[in-house]
């Protein structure tokens, strides 16, 4: 029986081409959608065995498709998911690949799909419960683990640098023209992304600074 598939791709021509290709491969495309909300709704309606989704989708064109895939895997661990994109989001990619015990999941890069037979084989491997990850995605995930500072946004790195210089939250807020509350949120995000355990906040700030200094060597 053909694998029921939902395709999430916001570019119309690419979506049509992929849907035709999936049908040629023998997959039963039961829905094509153009945004993350539509993807979640289509999975709820059609109960597919496989989802193929882009990363950046409306409305923000950031990581909506990938976040939707992570949510779907949490709600439906048996759902096979293939991310097909030109973008690598290492933090979210790691979360997706860790979901469902790492079974039935794939992350492929559009520009590196050079053989249709290999593409079909990758889809079937994931649909059957296997895992397929582009080597470039693996490389970026390994680099992320070696460089935890790379997980931070530019603003978070800026805040951490000021913490390392000995500035208080109030001083950082004045320097960056933001509120103390926003500074606190940035620091909280930094501590979470650096995987620092929830112990004494002062100790965590010191550990964050040490991580920053080691990465800067």
Automatic annotation (TrEMBL):
Domain HTH luxR-type: 145-216
A Pfam family recorded for this sequence: GerE
Source organism per UniProt: Paractinoplanes lichenicola
PANTHER family assigned: TRANSCRIPTIONAL REGULATORY PROTEIN NARL-RELATED, TWO-COMPONENT RESPONSE REGULATOR
Modified residues (4-aspartylphosphate): 54
Alphabetically ordered keywords of this record: DNA-binding, Phosphoprotein, Transcription, Transcription regulation
Protein name, entry field: Response regulator transcription factor
UniProt lineage: Bacteria, Bacillati, Actinomycetota, Actinomycetes, Micromonosporales
Response regulatory domain sequence ranges: 4-125
């Amino acid at each position: 029986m053909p694998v029921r598939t939902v395709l999430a791709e916001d570019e119309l021509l690419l979506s049509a081409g992929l849907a035709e290709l999936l049908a040629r491969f023998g997959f039963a495309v039961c829905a094509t959608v153009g945004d993350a909300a539509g993807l979640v709704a289509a999975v709820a309606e059609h109960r597919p065995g496989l989802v193929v989704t882009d990363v950046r989708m409306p409305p923000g064109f950031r990581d909506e498709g990938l976040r939707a895939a992570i949510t779907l895997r949490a709600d439906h661990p048996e759902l096979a998911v293939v991310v097909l994109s030109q973008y690598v989001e290492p933090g979210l990619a790691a979360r997706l690949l860790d979901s469902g015990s790492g079974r039935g999941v794939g992350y492929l890069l559009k520009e590196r799909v050079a053989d249709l037979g290999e593409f079909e084989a990758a889809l079937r491997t994931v649909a059957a419960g296997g895992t397929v990850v582009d080597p470039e995605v693996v490389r970026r995930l390994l680099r992320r683990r070696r460089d935890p500072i790379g997980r931070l946004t530019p603003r978070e790195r800026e805040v951490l640098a000021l913490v390392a210089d000995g500035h208080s939250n109030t001083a950082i807020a004045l320097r960056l023209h933001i509120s103390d509350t926003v500074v606190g949120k940035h620091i909280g995000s930094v501590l979470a992304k650096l995987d620092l355990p929830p112990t004494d906040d002062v100790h965590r700030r010191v550990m964050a600074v040490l991580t920053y200094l080691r990465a800067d060597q």
